[in-house]
Amino acid sequence: MKRIYIALLLTLAFSVHAENRPAEVLLFGVFHFANPGRDVIRVDQVDVSTPKNQAYLAELAQRLCDFRPTAILLEFDRADESEMRKQFGDYRSGKMKLGLNENQQIGFRVAEVCGVEKLYGFDESEIGWNAEPLFNYLAKFAPERLEAFNTEVARFQAAEAAAHRSLSLRELLIRANDSEQDRMNKDLYLLTNATGAGLGFEGADATARWWHRNFRMYANIQRYATPGQRVLVVAGQGHTAILRDLLKIDRRVIARDVHQYLSESVPPNRVGNGF
After folding, report:
1. Which residues of 82-207 form beta strands (DSSP E)?
2. Confidence bin at 43 (pLDDT 50/70/90)
3. DSSP labels for 161-174?
4. Distance CA 163, CA 154 (A)
5. In contact, 13 and 91? CB cutoff 8 Å
6. Lowest mean pLDDT: which of 50-54, 101-105, 124-128, 160-164?
């Protein structure tokens, strides 16, 4: 009886301690595995469905489980949560095979291995990079800037295509979380940011719309990153490049580095399935 009493006290103490700890957030940037073609940078990319890459993704799910997530946030609209959870249930029960997109290839796998019951959408796609006024202005008043922008996009596409031809899936995911890649991603928006400065601010307004979407997405992360929670966030690098900046600033949460889960060595906290 005394042992049971002590065990209950320890459990209660652990629960209180966990609730008082800041939330931990693991931000995982990816390229879109099944690219819908809406991004500015479009390339023929690596096939994640090969046996080798499927084996790697299964191992990666086990590694990410060492983070012990209590909530998993994926890049889809919150209005689609019911449908996404139905698909996850069908996958767990063997009624559905995984699709190619990262929400399923990473999100579903990790949730199943870790025993996380619910997946949350945190995208805000009704707000986006409103580039039409920007490009109309460039075409009419600054064609040389438009040409410079198109040249830079072509350079990005060539670099992405070369990476997908030569790097492994693990190396591509490391690249998607590289600080220099994040900087170049954000710098592309600054290339046109001065367009219309002092007049209509077409460039700055387009850029602000993109940051606006990501500020909303970060607000959704904050919604779930309450004390004691461990939140895994999986999203395209175009988002995580900005979200990572906000996460570094936010003193109310602890940012965890995804690179330890992408390394070839065993993650430092590996104990069984991570629990």
Report:
1. 119-123
2. low
3. HHHHHHS-HHHHHH
4. 14
5. no
6. 124-128
Classify 208 as helix, strand or coil.
helix
pTM above 0.85, yes or no: yes
Using alpha carbons, list the distances in angstroms from residue 161 to 199, 225, 237, 244: 38, 36, 16, 25
pLDDT reading at 222 higher than 60: yes
Query: Given its phi and psi angles, is residue 97 left (phi above 0), alpha (psi -120 to 50 degrees) or beta?
Result: beta
pLDDT of residue 5: 59
pLDDT at position 264 is 80
pLDDT in tens, 129-142: 889 999 999 999 99
Q: Which residue has the higher pLDDT, 11 or 180?
A: 180
DSSP string for residues in 17-46: HHHHSPEEEEEEEE--TT--S-SSS-----
CA dist 93 and 179 (Å) reads 39
Residue 39 in tokens: 């991004």
- 203 in helix, strand or coil? helix
Which candidate, 93, 84, 71, places its Cα nearest to that of 220?
Answer: 71
Q: Residue 74 in contact with residue 121, Cβ under 8 Å?
A: yes
The answer to whether 200 and 133 have CB atoms below 8 angstroms apart is yes
